[in-house]
User: Which sequence fits this backbone?
């Protein structure tokens, strides 16, 4: 699947969509990989020698490590819905427009969710979570 696909606008001109659904899927998966890395390394207070050790007796999790763990778990809970909706849109050939915009909203909200969760601002985190779920709804509606 090409990174940029030509799209026809209303005047018949060709334009290129650089942010297609497949690219967004890869970016969401990359974000999840970064979250796993941050959560695991934060438990060892970002000490590379401790991380590369045998981890027989891991230190008690700090507040930051706990928040990163909960943010990672929240992403893990949302990921099956996102991937299912994205793959359904691609399979149905309905992967442009609203599903892609919803996926982009999901990605951007999830990018903002991690620092919001780390900061400990509860209302901000909840609003960002709602925005990400709104992106999922945008992805789902055209598939009905």
Assistant:
């Amino acid at each position: 699947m090409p990174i940029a696909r030509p799209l026809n606008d209303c005047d018949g001109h060709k334009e290129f969509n650089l942010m297609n659904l497949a690219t967004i899927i890869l970016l969401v998966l990359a974000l999840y990989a970064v979250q796993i890395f941050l959560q695991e390394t934060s438990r060892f207070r970002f000490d590379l020698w401790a991380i590369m050790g045998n981890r027989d007796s891991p230190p008690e999790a700090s507040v930051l490590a706990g928040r990163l763990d909960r943010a990672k778990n929240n992403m893990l809970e949302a990921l099956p819905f996102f991937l299912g909706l994205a793959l359904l849109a691609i399979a149905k050939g309905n992967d442009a427009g609203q599903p892609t915009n919803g996926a982009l909203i999901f990605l951007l909200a999830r990018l903002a969710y991690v620092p919001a969760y780390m900061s400990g601002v509860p209302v901000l985190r909840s609003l960002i979570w709602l925005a990400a779920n709104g992106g999922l709804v945008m992805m789902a509606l055209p598939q009905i």
